[in-house]
């Protein structure tokens, strides 16, 4: 039985895919962290077209036809595996908020591609998932963390998206402050200058190298290591309240950053006291500002997961 006919045999596939935070301060377009907030998909092959049901984030907003991002990713995944399925039902239970900098588009894309692997009975090839998801998303940082879990460093080689996974230091966790308002990634990218001062570029190169050490072994350096001079301040006009919150939290010694293209603010936490503020008693990020949501998150260790043959 080839992949296509196997796929059409009717077994449902279930997928769980994590939210992700990209950049992490200085690691612009390269660093990603997988977080314990998940979208869940169930795909049941059958019929001749697609039926899409969405619960949670994006319900009533996203398209429910072939243009739905998960459907497009399933189709692209099937094509890359040499398979095709004329019709299926897709059920989405979405917990990752849209347009907030927590990687909802990457979760949709990586989740859809992983579903294609499940539908065809193909063992997940995570590096191939990263490469294809990068083609659909246009940048590799979030898709890398959604596909590989943990802490990821992504890059492009020619047109190809690639990534490695590093093990986050034990005890690393995060608090996300998510405002009501959205910022579209495209809009936030439009605020960046085409050139930056050499000194800023040099500072970011050093800080991003330090951040690899801080995230994997030296969490007491997180505050210093998350300093950024390449993108966060430039985006202030699109998210002034987020930048104000980042400064306030950093001012009391907490390693706060803009998550992805914003406007979510992410604070990295660890039982070790941040070294830059040895006098502070503040270690737990406080309550969310009015109108914002606060999520206490762990680091997702494995990235996207797929189960076949059980639609429950
Ligand atoms: N689960 C989903 N199903 C369908 N479409 C989705 C889904 N998640 C995201 N999208 C599409 O992607 C858009 C959000 O993408 P965008 O890249 O702007 O934000 P984000 O991915 O949430 O944040 P960031 O890329 O900064 O981490 C949504 O408005 C919607 O069109
Ligand atoms: Mg996105």
Automatic annotation (TrEMBL):
Q: Where is the GHMP kinase C-terminal domain?
A: 227-273
Q: Where in the cell is it found?
A: Cytoplasm
Keyword Cytoplasm among UniProt keywords? yes
Alphabetized, the UniProt keywords read: Amino-acid biosynthesis, ATP-binding, Cytoplasm, Kinase, Nucleotide-binding, Threonine biosynthesis, Transferase
Q: Where does ATP bind?
A: 97-107
A Pfam family of this chain: GHMP_kinases_N
Q: Which family does it belong to?
A: Belongs to the GHMP kinase family. Homoserine kinase subfamily.
* Name by which UniProt lists this protein: Homoserine kinase
Please give the organism.
Answer: Kribbella sancticallisti
């Amino acid at each position: 039985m080839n992949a296509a006919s196997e796929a059409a045999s009717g077994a449902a596939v279930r997928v769980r895919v994590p939210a992700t935070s990209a950049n992490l301060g200085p690691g612009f377009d390269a660093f990603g962290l997988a977080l314990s907030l998940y979208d869940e998909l169930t795909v049941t092959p059958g019929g001749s077209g697609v039926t899409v049901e969405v619960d949670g984030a994006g319900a009533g907003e996203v398209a429910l036809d072939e243009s739905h991002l998960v459907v497009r990713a399933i189709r692209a995944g099937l094509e890359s595996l040499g398979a095709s399925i004329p019709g299926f039902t897709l059920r989405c239970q979405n917990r990752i908020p849209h347009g907030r900098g927590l990687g909802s588009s990457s979760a949709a894309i990586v989740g859809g591609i992983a579903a294609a692997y499940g539908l065809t009975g193909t063992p997940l090839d995570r590096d191939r998932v990263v490469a294809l998801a990068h083609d659909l998303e246009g940048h590799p940082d979030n898709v890398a963390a959604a596909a590989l879990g943990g802490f990821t460093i992504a890059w492009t080689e020619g047109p190809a998206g690639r990534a490695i996974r590093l093990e986050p230091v034990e005890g690393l966790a995060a608090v996300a402050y998510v405002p009501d308002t959205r910022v579209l990634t495209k809009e936030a990218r439009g605020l960046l200058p085409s050139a930056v001062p050499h000194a800023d570029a040099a500072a970011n190169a050093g800080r991003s190298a330090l951040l690899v050490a801080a995230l994997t072994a030296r969490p007491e350096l997180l505050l210093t290591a998350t300093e950024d001079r390449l993108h966060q301040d430039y985006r202030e006009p699109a998210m002034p309240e987020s930048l104000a919150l980042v400064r306030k939290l950093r001012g009391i010694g907490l390693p706060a950053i803009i998550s992805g293209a914003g406007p979510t603010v992410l604070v990295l936490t660890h039982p070790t006291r941040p070294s830059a503020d040895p006098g502070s008693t503040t270690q737990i990020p406080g309550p969310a500002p009015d109108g914002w949501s606060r999520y206490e998150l762990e680091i997702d260790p494995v990235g996207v997961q797929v189960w076949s043959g059980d639609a429950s």
